[in-house]
Amino acid sequence: MCGVDEFVCIKGKLMKRIKKIIPILSILLLLFMVSLPDAFFASESKKDQLVNCDIQNQQCVQPILNGSIGFDIQPKPVKAMKDLTFEVTVKDINLTGPPIIDLSMPGMKMGKNKVKMKMTAKGVYQGTGIIVRCPSGKTIWQATIHLSGIGNANFIFNVIY
To answer: What is the per-residue pLDDT across 70-118, written as a single tens digit (0 to 9) for each?
Structure first.
């Protein structure tokens, strides 16, 4: 029991409990911070190391299965907030339907920004879309190309604002 000055007594007991809890909360916070993905804390220069596509200068190509997939954007330079033509070229691959491009930024949750493609020639698909300007000013974008019946290919590139 606290006795005469109950407020001071309760305050003292509360402070003792808080002092016991602070080290536990500190450890939990540290464990949470360690478990966050590297991309969350990565600087723009570290994210630049993720870039696997020089879209400003050339078509990007990746091997897939026994063939390859090419990815290109026109016009160049590739700028945000402009109408763009996206092109996917497949060689020695049989798709069960046209590819779909999902545009996003590495390490960020974003709304849907999909580009639907139509075949324009054998193994060549085109579609139009816009790369939005990120309020953070970051310029690294990712195109995940969904290939029906095959899987996905990821192209990570820089956009000009």
So the answer is: 999 999 999 999 999 999 999 999 899 999 999 999 888 888 899 999 9
d(CA 84, CA 129): 5
**Global confidence as pTM:** 0.70
The domain covering 45-158 belongs, at the CATH homologous superfamily level, to: Macroglobulin (MG2) domain (2.60.40.1930)
